[in-house]
Design a protein that fits this description.
This protein is mostly helical and 324 residues long. The protein is 80% helix and 0% strand. Pfam families: SpoIIM.
Length: 324
């Protein structure tokens, strides 16, 4: 459809929205749904057009009116976990994909580098860790390092460190996404070198069954934190129809919420690493924990957001969350 035809077909309705201020919540919602459909169409077919800016302003005005009229939600925490965070995850789905791909590429770089340079693992993991692990391998307990510290102290230090890494990946997005990609790459290379170290000694399966008890949640959360950082960086690089400042504000707010939402995941990962990884579990026990952890991450951050956004009530859900 040509732009002129699109404007002629809808201009009367848009004008009525401006001139006749509806107060009924149902009518406001109906108008908001119609406008978001128009805005989506204009973004697709008329990028950079004045009609796009006009619709963006009209939709924003209507959204503010909806938000000011709605009753404050008493279940704020429930709303955040059930709707707000999953919808932000959906909006960040491409950032999540890019973070995952960069991490995977870095993992293979770390593995290949370790395979071709025997000093690489020491460079990445440090002489102290490598020497201690080699000694543990000689003693018949390759992963004894997870038993070298008290559970409570280990839980606190690991959890704090993981949260620190998460917020580093998030805040590094201020460097136009480059900082976040560096943090993701650094962690991917480290994991690749680490896993190859055990593979080279015929201990890959044993290490996977042990390390990924906590690593499934920990590594997944670092990748998702990377997606939060990319939200900030890409909001600066690609502001779209918004001013760069407004785009940055929106990206920073969503990215921060996504990063904060990962704190319970890191706490769970810290608990598993401190209290469970050190145990000698049967294979089925390790596989069960790893499987449940992976299923949770995939369901909550990928599948559920897709279903939530695709539901017939998605606009109503968005109206009842603070995504903007």
């Amino acid at each position: 459809m040509k732009e002129a035809v699109f404007v002629k077909r809808n201009s009367e309705r848009w004008r009525s929205y401006e001139e006749s201020q509806a107060e009924d919540p149902d009518e406001l919602t109906s108008r908001f749904i119609a406008l978001t459909d128009d805005l989506s169409y204009a973004r697709t077919f008329y990028p950079g057009s004045p009609v796009l800016k006009y619709l963006n302003g009209l939709t924003s005005h209507l959204h503010r009116k909806l938000y000011s009229n709605r009753r404050e939600d008493h279940g704020r925490i429930k709303t955040f976990w059930m709707y707000e965070l999953p919808l932000i995850s959906f909006q960040a789905r491409y950032n999540l994909l890019y973070a995952f791909l960069f991490f995977t590429a870095a993992f293979f770089i770390g593995s290949i580098s370790a395979a071709n340079d025997e000093t690489f693992v020491r460079l990445i993991l440090g002489d102290g860790y490598v020497n201690q692990t080699l000694e543990n391998i000689k003693n018949g307990d390759p992963l004894a390092i997870y038993k070298s510290e008290g559970s409570a102290d280990m839980f606190l230090s690991i959890t704090v460190n993981n949260i620190r890494v998460s917020f580093m990946a998030f805040s590094a997005g201020l460097l136009f996404s480059a900082g976040t990609l560096y943090v993701i790459t650094q962690n991917g290379i480290m994991l690749g070198a680490f896993q190859y170290f055990f593979y080279e000694r015929g201990l890959l399966l044993q290490s996977v069954l042990k390390i990924w008890i906590h690593g499934t949640l920990e590594i997944s959360a670092i990748i998702i934190a990377g997606a939060a950082g990319l939200l900030i960086g890409n909001s600066l690089l690609f502001p779209g129809t918004y001013s760069r400042l407004e785009s940055f504000k929106g990206g920073a707010k969503k990215g921060l919420k996504l990063a904060i939402g990962l704190v319970p995941v890191f706490i769970a990962a810290g608990f598993l690493e401190s209290f469970v990884t050190r145990l000698t579990l049967p294979t089925w026990g390790s596989v069960s924990i790893i499987g449940v952890s992976a299923a949770f991450i995939i369901w909550y951050f990928v599948i559920y957001p897709q279903r939530l956004y695709g539901s017939k009530n998605r606009i109503d859900i968005q109206n009842h969350t603070r995504l903007n």
